[in-house]
Amino acid sequence: MEHTLALIAVLLLSYAPSLVGSWRWFAYGGTSRLRATSRQMADALALDGLRVFILAYTFHLDWWDGRSIGLHHDGWVTAIFLGAVAYGLYLATVGDLLQGNQEAEIRSRWRSWLSLWPREPHGKRLTAALLMVNPFVEEIVSRGLLVYALGHTLGTPWPGIALGLVFCIVLHLYQGRTAIGFHIGFYLVTVALLYSPLGLLGAIACHFLADTQALRTERIVRGHRLWRARVRAQRDGLS
Fold first, then answer.
1. What is the pLDDT of residues 54-106, one digit of tens each?
2. What is the longest distance spanned by two Cα atoms in the chain?
3. What dihedral angle (degrees, nearest 10) is formed by the CA atoms of 86, 219, 34, 43?
4. Cβ pair 117, 31 in contact under 8 A
5. Is the torsion defined by CA of 20, 193, 85, 56 positive or negative?
6. Which of 173, 181, 184, 193 is paired with 88 by a 20 to 30 Å CA distance?
């Protein structure tokens, strides 16, 4: 029990800069006014690297294993597939129900995704790497340890689920008020996957698909901007 609590405390402490930064973005108007820098992306990626090191080292010390955080060794292909399907179903059904103003929520989510992309090419590569790594690290920490392992240690999952919900909300405050409901629903979906036969792997697949959506968004917007530039150039050439 002591090892589990100590590991959770250290990993949550490593998220302190992200939690404070998310709150500051929220206080200063969120993604409508701020844009990430290459330095911020490098720092975030370095912190994820630190968490991976902590997880690997404590795994070596036998503080935790796959089963203790909800990773099942059987049916991993099915878990990945159904976890991805769960995210698609969430977007198609529950996500719409949680959006008080669908148009405003969509604009807020697109701004939050675009705000993650620094203007420099180096920063864009760092962001892409972060979006590929983050789903694994965040799910292991905030679902596998904070919810599943802590629930097993305490004999009840509810304190961990409540603490994980607060953690999820504060971590994503930078995306604005209209995205809070979406993230609450998304958190509940991943917790349901965690305690289903799919386990943590299903939750990771769901989160991975959600984060990599930002990769597609950046490409779509960049393509749209290039198209607008070409149309403007052709119009200027005809005038």
1. 999 999 999 999 999 999 877 889 999 999 999 989 988 765 555 544 445 55
2. 74
3. 80
4. no
5. positive
6. 173
Match 């991805």 to its residue by tokens: 84
**Total residue count of the chain as it appears in this document:** 239
pLDDT, residue 100, reads 47
Outline where the chain has alpha helix (H).
Answer: 2-14, 16-27, 38-60, 76-92, 94-98, 102-115, 121-139, 150-154, 158-171, 180-194, 199-238
8 Å CB contact between 132 and 212: yes
Question: Is 139 within 8 Å of 133 (Cβ atoms)?
Answer: no
Contact 145, 74 (CB under 8 A): no
- Tens-digit pLDDT profile for residues 156-202: 999 999 999 999 999 988 877 777 888 899 999 999 999 999 999 99
- 197: which 2 tokens? 């036969």
Q: Is 144 exposed, middle or buried (0-12, 13-18, 19+ CB in 10 A)?
A: buried
Position 112 scores a pLDDT of: 60
The angle formed by the CA atoms of residues 219, 224 and 226, to the nearest 5 degrees, is 95
User: Any idea where the domains of the chain sit in the sequence?
Assistant: 2-238
pTM: 0.82
The 10 Å Cβ neighbour count of residue 101 is 10
* Sequence-distant (≥ 6) Cβ neighbours of residue 16 within 8 angstroms: none
